[in-house]
Amino acid sequence: MLPYERVMEVFRGGTPDRIPCVNFASVITKEFLAYYNANWVDIYQDPEKMASVASAAHRLCGLDNISLPFDQSVEAELLGIKFDYHPDGPPTPLSFLSEEQYFEIVVPHSLADKGRMPVIQKAIKRLKEEFGGRVPINVIVSPPMTTVAGYLLGPSATNLMMRRFPGALKGMLEETFRLHLELVNLYEEWGADIITLHDPKGSPDVLNPGFFDSLVLSYHKSLIEETKLPTVVNVCGNIIHVLEKIISCNPSAIVFDYKTPVKSVMKALSEANKKIPVAGNLSPFWDIYLADDERMEERVVEVIKGGVDFVSPGCDLWVATPIEKLRGLVSLVEKYGKIR
Amino acid sequence: MTQTGDASVREQLVRLKEAILNGDAKAAAEAAAILKEKGLQPLEVVNQAIKPAMDEMGKRYERLEAFLPDLVLAGEAAQEALRVILPKEGEESFIKGKVVIGTIYGDIHDIGKNIVAAMLSANGYKIIDLGNDVPPERYVEVAKKEGAHIIGMSCLLTPSMYYMRDVIRKLKEENIRDRFYVIIGGAAVYPDWAKEIGADGWAKDAERAVQLCDALMEKGKELPKPVILGEWR
């Protein structure tokens, strides 16, 4: 099977020739950048370089998907936050909004020609020309909580606002959500095959789970319903206490990291009597970057035996991960991925 | 001097502790002001209200009875109380040490750093908080200007961790590496990274960050580096 068929077969509930090895989060590494003679500024300004680095994990290591963009600031930039671009890392906001400025957020009328969107559009087009129908193109969307907590207000101020003025925070999320709705439709129109809602700031590790329904889940649900594309939900950290809620949104797949055991996810799915593909739960650091051959093999076998439908890291690749490690990971999945 | 056994003092100490646990900075400042007026020494207020409140909040967090927003608010209330009780003059006689702290360049994640800063404050350290996205040269510049004892760097994003090395490199270039203890923490960095870049210590969480600073301030010259407190995972 081609990677596209292999991955889509899982979303359709079928049985592929083997378990796909993917990453629905960021796939950027220093070696990929060096290979394409690019830095963090280039990959947001040059569609060719964005496409090259987004496909590097497939092209150079054999991963079964392509993922872009590479950080979570695209949405905030569209909402008017100014960024400082660093050659050595993702862009950072020049300043955050104050609590009182939340009503100043303006969602532009047309997003297609704003911020980094033209670069993303061209990169998807370029990838579609080369890989369309052969390797699935995954586009990462940062849902409202990650946009607000990560870049609009900042993590600390968001936490304080959540306690002091939850109504105002909800208003801010609602306002930004109009942008997210348009984004998923644009990505679909431009040819993306998969949408991943990557929401690290919605994690119960940083958020009182009492707020999860209102401030995180409701937006995931609406975005899943908005697009016809397979939509993957990736909430970081220990998500055991919110699994039932995530499952209730009917995502096309659930990604989880090493803090959530595979058996907990399988148990929650069984209790909900639902069959939703799951992707996990390798630690990008311990199980890939730092792992020796033995540990990586042990973990790949463990997650496959645990019942994952995709072998994947639970988060962004560790940027210092060598190409050889990722090749090793893919080889292991090729070797053990047919055992079920 | 007022005795802490005085009923009205005891009442204010309880009030201060509760204000911190409730994340109520205004009430914390008011209680601290009354305690100061009654003649309580800063160290007594810290040991009998601020530190126990922060310790209790840490325990609630571990038991999942409190969440990060609660910790952040408690830290803010503790900082407010400290601002009131610490003398403007002669502050140095009270503090254990000065810590220049910040989230490293390229990274805006400051919750963990803020909690560490609050815990260090509650434990008698003077904090100079540089905020987030702090360029390497800024740590060095401020540490020199303030006569800091410790430089603390936090990092959650892996691409940014490499800037930590630049801070240490800059200290070496200026021949002032021995003047400061450099400690690191945050989800992106791990004990071996501390060793690789030549940091003096790494701590898993805020409580251990306090222990790390205490250890370095008390017998830092004798300890093998880096001092590692806790396990990374």
Detailed description of the structure:
Chain A: One of its GO terms (molecular function) is uroporphyrinogen decarboxylase activity. Chain A: Residues 4-336 form the Uroporphyrinogen decarboxylase (URO-D) domain. Chain A: This is Uroporphyrinogen decarboxylase (URO-D) domain-containing protein. Chain A: Pfam families: URO-D. The complex is a heterodimer of chains A (340) and B (233). By secondary structure, chain A is of the alpha/beta class. Chain A has 15 helices and nine strands. Chain A has helices at residues 3-11, 30-35, 42-45, 47-61, 74-78, 117-131, 144-152, 155-164, 166-190, 212-226, 243-248, 262-272, 284-289, 293-306, 323-336, and strands at 66-68, 83-86, 89-93, 137-141, 194-198, 231-234, 253-255, 278-282, 310-313. Chain A has a seven-stranded parallel sheet with strand order 1-4-5-6-7-8-9, sandwiched between helices. In chain A, helix 11 (243-248) links the parallel strand 6 (231-234) and strand 7 (253-255). The relative contact order of chain A is 0.14. With 233 residues, chain B is an alpha/beta fold. Chain B has two domains: 7-94, Orthogonal Bundle (Methyltransferase, Methionine Synthase (B12-binding Domains), Chain A, domain 1); 95-233, Cobalamin-binding domain (Rossmann fold), CATH 3.40.50. Chain B is 53% helix and 12% strand. Chain B has helices spanning 7-21, 25-37, 42-62, 68-85, 111-122, 136-146, 162-173, 191-197, 206-219; strands at 97-103, 125-129, 150-154, 181-185, 201-203, 227-229. In chain B, strands 2-1-3-4-5-6 form a six-stranded parallel sheet, with helices on both faces. In chain B, strand 4 (181-185), helix 8 (191-197) and strand 5 (201-203) form a beta-alpha-beta unit. Chain B is globular, with a radius of gyration of 18 Å. Chain B starts with 6 loop residues before the first helix and ends with a strand. The chains are: A alpha/beta (340), B alpha/beta (233). Chain A binds chain B through residues 40, 84, 86, 88-90, 92-93, 96, 150-151, 154-156, 159-160, 162-163, 205-209, 285-286, 316, 318-320, and chain B through 23, 67-70, 72-73, 76, 105-111, 114, 132-133, 157-160, 162-163, 190, 233.
